[in-house]
Write a structure and sequence with these properties.
The chain is of the alpha/beta class and 430 residues long. It has three domains: 4-135, Immunoglobulin-like, CATH 2.60.40; 139-172, no CATH class; 179-429, Metallo-dependent phosphatases (Purple Acid Phosphatase, chain A, domain 2). The protein has helices spanning 143-148, 196-208, 232-235, 262-279, 322-335, 351-357, and strands at residues 4-14, 27-36, 40-41, 61-66, 71-76, 86-87, 89-97, 104-105, 110-118, 123-132, 135-137, 154-158, 161-166, 174-176, 179-184, 213-216, 244-246, 283-284, 288-294, 297-303, 340-346, 365-368, 377-378, 381-382, 393-397, 400-404, 420-429. The strands form six sheets. It has a seven-stranded mixed sheet with strand order 3-1-27-15-16-17-18, covered by helices on one side. Strands 5-4-7-9-10-2-6 form a seven-stranded mixed sheet, with no helix packed on it. Strands 19-20-21-22-26-25 form a six-stranded mixed sheet, covered by helices on one side. A hairpin with a 4-residue loop joins strand 9 (110-118) and strand 10.
């Protein structure tokens, strides 16, 4: 998938009800608006805004759910009555225009979601960030091509089935579903012990994106696999077309389970490994690589064990083995070298990107977590920036990029200015 280089990121923030709780009562009012959220790293072509404008807000369908995921209201924004009282509490709203299943000319699909809080006796204004959810495809021919060929047309197909047909000299844009990756990190299930409804809402939001692939970048638990057992049925609901790829984080190695020998910690790691692979059905990558093939394109996911332990003083449990990963990745491609390849690395600690990836390896995209952005911001700056050169969001070095997800769960029971995060990354053809 070398030609799938353009990345669009849509961030859907979720209020971590396990960390902060609202105790207001009574009813409140809410008004809805939309904002363009075209967060695009564009490699070779112009931005989305050059091809389409945001449709009228009144034509968007919104769906409001309460904290238990129960449906409150759905319909066009224009039909929402802002004088409708809602009980105080936590809510989520999704907004969509068009259908992702309908591909072709004049068929853009926009989608976004936002969590909000209704305070008793107050009116809230909720702005929902919406982004283009499919890929723009344009066909162009050089003058030499037009001079040589007098009659021609172009077809876009998926798995042998025709999607869009461009006629001679037709230059308008078609909207095609891109390859969608949901990136999540740092569930820390012990912090969600009292909030199964919140985790259910997270999983429902992920599934609503209809992702092609889900990538989890570590710290499923804080101390041990037993934290996950009450959530097994919820976690098993999470799904994507090409499965769930995961790696282990520093907490997953039982580093903070004090009083255990290294042998006992290793046993807990193996229990967690078996749980992810056998019980949840995730594809856990422990210094391994995996290839996903779509037609002649290939997406190669590489995953390393946590690379931060040594720096934190855990000398004997430094686990990342990039040479082993690269050897396996190269062997996979040698066995079937046809087609284009897009490489993505899953590495829990973002420090690993600067230390071992940027200078020595050619990996276009690395996904990390670990920092939580410190779970606290002062004047808009995350306190994690005091400890990490790269602490949240996007970073770029040449043709390589790093994205740091701020996580969903907590290590400390508070998030201020750093809501929990689900990241949607769409690979685009350039």
């Amino acid at each position: 998938m070398k030609h799938l280089k353009t990345i669009m990121s849509v961030l859907m923030v979720l209020a971590a009800v396990s960390c902060t709780k609202h105790q207001t009562t009574g009813n409140g009012l809410v008004c809805f608006s939309l904002k363009n959220n075209l967060q695009i790293t564009d490699v070779t072509r112009s931005s989305v805004s050059d091809h389409t404008t945001l449709p009228s807000a009144g034509n968007f369908i919104i769906t409001i759910n309460d904290a238990s995921s129960a449906l409150v209201w759905t319909g066009k924004i224009s039909d929402w009555d802002a004088s409708t009282p809602l009980p105080a509490g936590n809510y989520s709203v999704t907004a969509s225009y068009g259908s992702i299943e309908n591909e072709g000319f004049d068929k853009p699909y926009f989608y976004g979601s936002q969590n909000f809080v209704v305070q008793g006796g107050q009116t809230s204004t909720v702005s929902v960030p919406v982004s283009l959810g499919n890929t723009i495809v344009k066909i162009g021919c050089t003058d030499n091509f037009k001079n040589y060929y007098k009659d021609y047309s172009f077809k876009i197909t998926r798995n042998g089935n025709e999607i869009v047909n461009f006629g001679k000299d037709e230059s308008k844009a078609a909207f095609i579903d891109g390859y969608k990756i949901v990136h999540i990190s740092d569930l820390h299930l012990s912090s969600l012990a009292d909030s199964p409804a919140f985790l259910q809402r997270v999983i429902d939001t992920i599934n609503a994106q209809q992702p092609d692939l889900i990538c989890f970048t570590g710290d499923l638990v804080s101390f041990g696999v037993e934290e996950a057992f009450p959530f097994t049925n919820i976690l098993r609901q999470m799904h994507s077309k090409d499965g769930i790829m995961s790696v282990l984080g520093n907490h997953d190695f039982a580093l903070y389970s004090h009083g255990l020998t290294y042998e006992e910690k290793d046993a807990k790691v193996e229990q967690l490994t078996a749980y992810q692979r056998d019980t949840l059905g995730w594809h856990l990558l422990r210094n391994q690589a995996h290839v996903i093939t779509r037609d002649t394109d290939k997406l190669q996911i590489m995953g390393v064990d946590n690379a931060s332990c040594q720096a934190q003083g855990f000398q004997t449990v430094y686990r990342a083995d990039m040479p082993k990963v690269i050897e396996e990745a190269n062997r996979q491609l040698d066995e079937d070298a046809k087609g284009n390849v897009m490489k993505i690395l899953l590495s829990h600690d973002p420090s690993h990107w600067r230390i071992e990836v940027v200078e020595a390896l050619n990996i276009p995209l690395t996904l990390s977590g670990h920092t939580h952005a410190g779970q606290f911001k002062v004047f808009g700056y995350p306190i994690s920036s005091l400890m990490f050169n790269e602490s949240e969001g996007w970073y770029h070095e040449g043709n390589q990029s790093l994205y740091i997800n701020t996580g969903i769960g907590c290590t400390l029971p508070v998030r201020i200015g750093v809501p929990a995060e689900i990241t949607l990354i769409t690979l685009r053809a350039n």
